[in-house]
Amino acid sequence: MQLDLNNLPSDPALLHRLVRDIASLIEHRNSEIERLRLIIKQLQRAQYGRRSERLDTDQFALGLEDLDTDLAVAETDPDPIAPLAPSPDGPPKRKSLPDHLPREEVVLGAGNEACAGCGGALHAIGESVSEMLDWVPAQLRVVRIRRPKFACRACGTVTQAPAPERPIAGGLATPALLAQVLVSKYCDHTPLYRQAQIFARHGVELERSTLAGWVGGACWWIESLHERLCKNVFASDHLFADDTPIPVLDPGRGRTKTGRLWVYARDQHGWGGPAPPAAVYLYAPDRKAERPASHLERFKGVLHVDGYAGFERLTSNGDIILAACWAHTRRKFYEIAEADGAPLALEALRRIGEIYAVEARIRGQSPAHRLAARRSLSRSHVDNFRLWLEAQLPLLPGRAKLAEAMRYALSRWDGLTRFLHDGRVELDTNPVERAIRPVALGRKNHLFAGSDGGGTRWAVLCSLIETCKLNGVEPYEYLRDVLTRMVDGYPVNRLDELLPWTWKEENPVKG
């Protein structure tokens, strides 16, 4: 708006209208400036700040490690002048060592000893037993397979035992070594080139390409088990869904492209459900809506999802009901509160916190109990929150970030209130968010998948390893045993017996 300050109109009505226009323009520009300022702060926080809404306990532990080390040094090297504190009579305040660990006995002072006072014979009246935890370094060994030949003197027939099946045709690796490589890469996030360096320190030169061939060969054996895991999970009636990007090498363009790992998790701990926890990963080269549609083609039930619009297509035939995520809704207000401490954002966080407080009290209860508690305690908080959103939204500029957060919540209200109608529905998608974290760690260490096939192998191994961890199964022991059984000709019609939770029943000891 251009104004000639030296030639203003003299008509009061025109001046009033001019002032109102100027005030409206200033309000619009201030709103736009505030919106852009919040965007800048969010981008700065995404790049430099902590992304989680609560303190990462692992990072917090890292910060305390040096303090714990300093304390241990101080306790180990006490002041030589100060008297030593008496040792406590009670047992040390630590967990006992697991029973399944092998134990080596060291007996001190055994034998026919004489009394130091009178020289008389000593007899045993008891003993003191203490334990220390030892480490046996991993070692490579060579399994030499000998197959003697026998000949018949009468007819000249030559007999020899058949060569055993190898997991990799013509390869050196046993199932145990393959399991070690797989777990190191996909569970402990150690890339193959680093593993090759570790093997070299043991005196065995293995090329990275050789290790890559082992990974591909091992995945060939367990792909069918991944299919059985997917079938089992998708037969459930309550799942959590999300996706995460992974960089994939695109040789034709000399750079990486963005693939996706679609993750589907089952977690019934919140309501004491009978199904074991599980997580399946499926690779896709893009994020098109038809990807989850094809994955969930036979799924019927409640699907916990975030704000991705592609999930809406799943509800067309009525077999799938979407439950929206309160954590994603809360995050919109949290980012605004972090940026400038807006009172309305803080009030929204307080109101959502009241809903979560009720959930904390009923976690692990039966669906009927949870539903009754939600209807008597949570419904009023939810209804009041909606009324508050509807009252505040018209008072805000349309393009304000706070208005966007409120519209985000109101547009998904049916999904957000699904938990008020089904005691098995959770408030958020945190189970699948937790399943995505190992992928993020691997993404930082692997840097990228070498191909779409590499993305598929990533999905296969992550599915089995993460499901093992969810069920308290040690991934190395599991993969070693499964590969051994498959190489030995395990029946295809009994693959369900090798799923982690069933395998655990035969192998209950973790480790």
Give a structural overview.
The protein has 511 residues and is of the alpha/beta class. Helix content is 48%, strand content 9%. It has helices at residues 12-48, 57-76, 175-186, 192-201, 208-234, 290-295, 326-340, 343-362, 367-392, 401-411, 413-416, 430-446, 452-470, 475-487, 500-506; strands at 149-151, 158-160, 238-250, 255-266, 278-284, 301-304, 320-323. The strands form 2 sheets. Strands 5-4-3-6-7 form a 5-stranded mixed beta sheet. A two-stranded antiparallel sheet has the order 1-2. Strand 1 (149-151) and strand 2 form a beta hairpin. The longest helix is centred in the N-terminal third of the chain and has 37 residues, at 12-48. The chain is elongated. The protein starts with 11 loop residues before the first helix and ends in a 5-residue tail after the last helix.
Distance between the terminal alpha carbons, to the nearest Å? Answer: 74 Å
Shape: elongated
Mean pLDDT: 85
- Name the structural class: alpha/beta
Strand content: 5-15%
Give the C-alpha Rg: 32 Å
**Spatial arrangement of strands, main beta sheet:** 5-4-3-6-7
Secondary-structure element order, as H and E? Answer: HHEEHHHEEEHEEHHHHHHHHH
Number of strands: 7
Q: Describe the main β-sheet briefly.
A: 5 strands, mixed
Q: Helix proportion of residues, in percent?
A: 40-55%
Domain Transposase IS66 central: 171-456
Biased composition (Pro residues): 80-90
Pfam family, one: LZ_Tnp_IS66
InterPro entries: IS66_C (IPR039552), Transposase-related (IPR052344), Transposase_IS66_central (IPR004291), Transposase_TnpC_homeodom (IPR024463), Znf_dom_IS66 (IPR024474)
